[in-house]
Amino acid sequence: MKKYRVKINGMTCTGCEQHIDAALTSIGAKNIETSFKCGESVFELPDDVNAENVRQAIRQTNYQPEEIEEIEEIEKISLQDLKSIELDNKDDYDLLIIGSGGAAFSAAIKSTEYGAKVGMIEREIVGGTCVNIGCVPSKTLLRAGEINHLAKVNPFTGLQTSAGEINLASLVSQKDELVSGLRNQKYIDLIDEYGIDLIKGEAKFVDENTVEVNGEKLSAKRFLIATGASPAIPTISGLEEVDYLTSTTLLELKKVPKRLTVIGTGYIGLELGQLFHNLGSEVTLIQRSDCLLKEYDPEISEAVERVLIEQGINLIKEVTYDRVEQVGEIKKVNITVDGKKKVVESEHVLVATGRKPNTDSLNLSAVGIEVGKRNEVQINEYARTSNEKIYAAGDVTLGPQFVYVAAYIGGIVADNAIGGLNKKLNLSVIPAVTFINPSIATVGLTEELANEKGYEVKTSVLSLDAVPRALVNHETIGVFKIVADAKTLKVLGVHIVSENAGDVIYAASLVVKHGLTVDDLKDSLAPYLTMAEGLRLAALTFDKDVSKLSCCAG
User: Where in the chain do CATH 3.50.50.60 domains reside?
Assistant: First the structure.
C-alpha cells in the first residue's frame, strides 16, 4: 500500500467529503481522510491501482481532481486534526455574528454545516424583529381583528353575528405566548442544536479582526452585521414631548383606544391602523403624499383607498405637519390640509414612518465600513461590506425588509465567508405582501418601472368582481393587474388586491422568475373558486372580455 494526496476542486461541505470517500473506497482505497476545507483527500492505495484510476473515480462524482502526489509517512497528524487546528487557531471564531434574527440564524446554521465555529452576539432578545415584535405578533393580532370585524359586519343575509367588547389584554397575552413558543422553537433551541456560542451584550468593532463585548475582546476570521432596524421617528415639532406609540409599543396596549391617529401610511401604518379599526377604534391615517401607496401602480392604490374608506377608516392626504401636542391624555396632531388648519385628536398616536438601521453603537468607522445617507450598511453583490472581512445582511442594510430576504442573504454570507464561494445575490424577483384585508401582494415590475426600463408594455387589469371566488365571498373590491412585454408577452410583474393575495403571489413569483408568458398562464389549469383563478382570468383579459365567458371557460 502506498499513501497519496490529491487536491480536489468543487467540494463545499461534509456531504462532498462523503461522496469522495465513497468513490475512493470503490477502487480499493483505505484509511481515507477527506477535507472539503483543505480541498484535498489523503488515502492509501493498493500497488495495482494507479493515479488514473483515482482521477476517473473522482470525476464520476462530478468533482475535479488536480495533482496527485505520493507522500511519505511524515504526517503525524490526521486531516481531521488539521481541520481542528484550522478552526482553533488564534481567532476565537470562524464567523462572529452581531445580531440574532433571521439573517443571523440562517448564516449561523449554514456556517456550522461547513464545520465552522460560530459565535452570535445579542444585546436584547434572541430572535430579532420578525418573531418578537414584527411579523408574528402583528399577524396573529391582525387575524383576531379580521374575525372581530366579520362578526360585526358580515356580508351574508340571514346570518346574525355580533361582536362583544374586546378584551385586548387577553389577546395580547395569547400573542405573547405564541411569540415565546416560536422564539424558543425556531431560535433559542437551535443555539445548542447547532453548537452556536451565544454572547449576551452590545458589540462594537475594535479593528477588522476584533469586537469588544462587555469589556471582553473577541476575534474572528469573518464577521456578519445583522443588527436589524428600529422605528424611525420623523422631525415634527412637539413630537418628542408626546407619549407616542411605535409599532412595538402599540402591540403591548391592554385596552383598545377609542381613537387612534396613525402618522404614516406605509405597510406598517396600514396594517396596524386597520387592526385597531377592526378592534373598534376610530382610526385616522395621515400622510404627506397626495397618493396612497405611491410606489404601486394607480389601480392598486385606488383599490386600497376605496377599501379603507368603505370600511370607515379616515384617510387624510397631502398633509403638512405643524405640531403635535398632548393635553392630559389627549394627543393633538395639528396639520395643514389644502391651506386650512386642522386638528386630529385621539387617545394615542402611532408613528409609522419607516425604519432606521441599528448601526449607531457598532463603531463602523474603526473598520472602514461605508454607510449610506441613513447610516445603513452598504454591501456589494456578494453581501460584503467595504471591508472584505465583514459582511452584512437584513434590515441593517435597508434592502428589501422581509425576513425571507434576510434569511436568503444570510445563507449567501455563509457560502461566501465560510464556504469560500463567490455567490452573487439575486434579488430580481421578490414577492411582497401587505396584510390588510383585502391584502396587497406584488412581484416584479410595475407598469411605470417597466416603461422606465425601456419595455414596450402591455397590461391587463381585472376587477375583483370578475373573479368567481370574490363573488361567492361577497367581497368584490380589489384588482388583479399583469404587466407584460408587449412584444413577447413575457410577464414582467403581477400586482393584486384581494383576499389571500399573499398566497396567490407565490405562483406569480414563479411566473416572473422563470420568464413565463401570458399564454403560459392562459394554457394552465386554475382550480375554480379559488382566488388564484384570478391570475389566469387576468391573463385571459389581455384579449377577451372575461365577463362574457361561462364558468371555467377559456
Answer: 93-231+356-418, 239-353
d(CA 478, CA 493): 17
pLDDT in tens, 157-201: 999 999 999 999 999 999 999 999 999 999 999 999 999 999 999
E-strand ranges in 99-147 read 118-122
If you average pLDDT over every residue of the chain, what do you get?
Answer: 93
Cα→Cα distances 353→222, 262, 417, 441, Å: 34, 9, 34, 20
CATH number for 239-353 (one of 3.50.50.60, 3.90.226.10, 3.40.190.10, 3.40.640.10): it is: 3.50.50.60
Strands 93-98 and 216-225: parallel
Q: Report yes or no: 261 and 346 within 8 Å, Cβ to Cβ.
A: yes
Residue 334: in which H helix or E strand, if any?
A: strand 330-337
pLDDT band at 75 (very low <50, low <70, confident <90, very high): very low
Percentage above 70 pLDDT, the chain: 96
Of 3.30.390.30, 3.30.565.10, 3.20.70.20, 3.30.2000.30, the CATH number of 432-548 is 3.30.390.30
CA 442 to chain centre: 14
CATH (residue range 2-80): 3.30.70.100
- What class has domain 93-231+356-418? alpha beta
Q: Is 495 helix (H, G, I), strand (E, B) or coil?
A: strand
- Cα–Cα dist 553/483, whole Å: 23
- At residue 549, the 3 state secondary structure works out as coil
List residues with catalytic annotation: 11, 13, 16, 63, 130, 135, 551-552
pTM of the model: 0.83
On whether the CB atoms of residues 452 and 422 are closer than 8 A, the answer is no
